[in-house]
């Protein structure tokens, strides 16, 4: 007996398993769902009836297959298949052909498999296939019951990541590209290395989505030997790509593989989360990217973070321990938590950005059940306490006088964990998911949860030698004066605009107060690291009892325009000192300066394979020309590879248009992305999604 060839029916099987976009040449299937194989023998089967009485299939994965660790599985070919375990059913037979239906269990380890047929004492190679998680299979731990969500969190390759401030959320396009053919192999290489460096050499662990998430997260940024990305410290962009210039995950993953696992320069939290989303979606785990605004990082599970300012209202540079970030980006993965109670299944928070869990030991966090974070169940695996502290900590402002003890500022408490956002299912709208993470600020339920979190952590400390602790919330001082910064628009300002500020002071102390006011603007990195003070003015007021005083200030663009950095963030501060008591009152606001308007116009009705044209327009709002202007245009299924157009200069207060001809080769929803750079600006992106009609 010998086999002439085997047919894995790749187009049909891959389509049934939602993997046809990954490959039309390799069999890629999802666990818990049958696939079809046809075996073509060299001679009529009835010549070998005795030999064919007991025939088996063998599925192998891993370097050293053995039955003991389930890496090699042998199962008989019968007339009935068992869908709950490895099985093969004979569906159809002809003179020289067998057509088999092969079933994989819904908890099989994911990976690269080899399939053999064994008859008598001989084994025959049939072919290779890749096995992924299956959100369409009810018995799989990653089962997601909603089809629209499966389309979004597994199959959608066009993402949106949110930056900015809680009052001015900015959408940034990202190409997850999880189904480009070589990406699946890179993902498994990454998984192998993650397991190796965590000491997990048992490949049967790959049946667990929790295990896979932790192995992948360990590889993003925290493993100094083979991490995928190097974190960008402040403005250190030498010999690398600034984080804001990346447009998608595939160039990062390919560069990492091509360099033999050298870390790619550079990434920050949104890049780590975006690449993680690509890898986990490719492996079959429903994943989304989430942004939280005003995030307390490296708190070591304390519910208190301190910020120190000098007497000019300038934020002082602190060590890297605890700091309030303007925004932070992490992931959520959907899975059943077989290791926990049923209520903890569902969305799990997973953060690839390193946190100091213990002294000198940076690590990723999660997966932590989002339900446990909301309920304050801080003793639940993994790392619920870190997520809970990051979005529930209160930030106290201290004023550091030269050579003196820091003094707490009235009104200087800031609340974290605001406007937690992710892309909506099936649309490009921003969805607020804060209610999944915490109860309304000031509600009775919030107080109950905070009290429970304190009790849980105290209990943990009495049973272990854990260094993790929740410190007490700062004492809220009574404010004899209220101080506010009012902006005409709490949303972002356009580049080139002056900043109109209104400082409001209300003295309700019952007596007149002589005061000294310092108003300032500082440029800021997204992770709370101050860059430089750009502007400051001082004023003296006599505040009358029970009266409101207003100060209107216009800060010219010329004072801050040259010093805007990657995320265009500014912190506005107002510090009022009572000359008699020495009390200090403090207010702050963060604003994001919006880039110039870059718009993409596409024809209304476009058809596959029919030539079309996109119109890209750039408005220069500045009083100076934009020099050395380049637009890079990309779009999967619309444009083959990225195209670059050199525009030269765009004159002051003028608009420049670019016509981009293209021919769509793929039908369905497609996105065109434009990335504009010039001497003055490096991170101006725009995107437009359209539906291409099938030819």
UniProtKB/TrEMBL annotation:
The active site is at 269, 328, 351. Residues 261-354 form the Transglutaminase-like domain. InterPro entries: Ig-like_fold, Ig_E-set, Papain-like_cys_pep_sf, Transglutaminase, Transglutaminase-like, Transglutaminase-like_sf, Transglutaminase_animal, Transglutaminase_C. One of its GO terms (molecular function) is protein-glutamine gamma-glutamyltransferase activity. Belongs to the transglutaminase superfamily. Transglutaminase family. PANTHER family: PROTEIN 4.2, PROTEIN-GLUTAMINE GAMMA-GLUTAMYLTRANSFERASE. This is EPB42 protein.
């Amino acid at each position: 007996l010998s086999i002439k060839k085997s047919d894995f029916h790749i187009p049909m099987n891959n389509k049934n398993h939602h993997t046809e976009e990954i490959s039309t040449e390799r069999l890629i299937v999802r666990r818990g769902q049958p696939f079809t194989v046809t075996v073509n023998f060299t001679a009529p089967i009835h010549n070998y009836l005795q030999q064919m009485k007991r025939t088996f299939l063998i599925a192998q994965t891993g370097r050293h297959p053995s039955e003991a660790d389930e890496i090699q599985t042998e199962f008989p070919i019968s007339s009935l298949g068992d869908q709950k375990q490895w099985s093969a059913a004979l569906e159809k037979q002809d003179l020289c052909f067998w057509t088999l239906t092969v079933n994989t269990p819904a908890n099989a380890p994911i990976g690269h498999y080899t399939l053999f047929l064994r008859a008598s004492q001989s084994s025959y190679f049939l072919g290779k296939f890749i096995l992924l998680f299956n959100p369409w299979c009810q018995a799989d731990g990653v089962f997601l019951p909603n089809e629209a969500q499966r389309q979004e969190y597994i199959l959608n390759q066009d993402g949106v990541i949110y930056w900015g401030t809680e009052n001015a959320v900015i959408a940034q396009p990202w190409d997850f590209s999880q189904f480009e053919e070589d990406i699946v192999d890179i993902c498994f290489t990454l998984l192998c290395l993650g397991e190796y460096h965590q000491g997990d050499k048992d490949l049967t662990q790959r049946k667990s989505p929790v295990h896979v998430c932790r192995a992948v997260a360990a590889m993003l940024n925290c493993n100094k030997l083979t991490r995928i990305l190097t974190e960008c410290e402040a403005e250190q962009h030498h010999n690398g790509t600034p984080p804001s210039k990346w447009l998608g995950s595939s160039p990062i993953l390919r560069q990492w593989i091509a360099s033999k696992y050298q870390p790619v320069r550079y990434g920050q939290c949104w890049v780590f989360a975006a690449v993680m989303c690509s890898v986990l979606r490719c492996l079959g785990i429903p994943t989304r990217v989430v942004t939280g605004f005003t995030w307390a990082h490296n708190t070591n599970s304390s519910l208190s973070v301190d910020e120190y300012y000098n007497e000019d209202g300038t934020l002082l540079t602190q060590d890297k321990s605890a700091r309030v970030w303007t925004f932070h980006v992490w992931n959520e993965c959907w899975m059943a938590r077989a290791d926990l109670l049923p209520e903890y299944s569902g969305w799990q928070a997973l953060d690839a950005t390193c946190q100091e869990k213990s002294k000198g030991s940076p690590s990723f966090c999660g997966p932590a059940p989002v339900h446990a974070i909301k309920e304050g169940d801080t003793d639940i695996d993994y790392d619920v306490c870190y997520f809970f502290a990051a979005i529930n900590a209160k930030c106290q402002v201290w004023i550091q006088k030269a050579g003196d003890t820091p003094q707490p500022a009235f009104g200087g408490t800031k609340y974290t964990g605001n406007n937690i956002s992710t892309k909506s299912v099936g649309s490009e709208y921003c969805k607020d998911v804060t209610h999944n993470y915490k109860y309304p600020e000031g509600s009775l339920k919030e107080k109950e949860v905070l009290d429970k979190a304190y009790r849980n952590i105290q209990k943990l400390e009495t049973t272990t030698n854990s260094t993790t602790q929740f410190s007490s919330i700062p004492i809220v001082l009574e404010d004899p004066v209220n101080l506010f910064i009012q902006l005409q628009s709490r949303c972002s300002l356009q580049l080139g605009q002056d900043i109109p500020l209104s400082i409001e002071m209300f003295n309700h102390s019952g007596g007149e107060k002589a005061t000294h006011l310092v108003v300032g603007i500082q440029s800021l990195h997204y992770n709370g690291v101050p860059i430089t003070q750009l502007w400051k003015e001082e004023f003296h007021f006599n505040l009358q009892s029970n009266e409101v005083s207003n100060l209107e200030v216009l800060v010219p663009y010329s004072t801050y325009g040259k010093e805007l950095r990657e995320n265009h963030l500014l912190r506005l501060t107002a510090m009022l000192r009572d000359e008699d008591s020495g009390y200090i009152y403090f207010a702050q606001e963060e604003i994001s300066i919006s880039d110039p308007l870059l718009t993409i116009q596409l024809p209304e009705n476009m058809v596959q394979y029919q030539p079309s044209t996109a119109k890209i327009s750039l408005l220069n709002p500045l009083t100076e020309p934009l020099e050395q202007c380049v637009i890079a245009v990309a779009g999967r299924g619309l444009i083959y590879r990225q195209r670059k157009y050199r525009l030269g200069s765009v004159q002051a207060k003028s608009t420049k248009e670019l016509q981009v001809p293209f021919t769509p080769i793929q039908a369905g929803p497609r996105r065109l992305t434009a990335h504009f750079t010039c001497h003055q600006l490096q991170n101006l992106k725009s995107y437009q999604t359209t539906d291409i009609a099938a030819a």
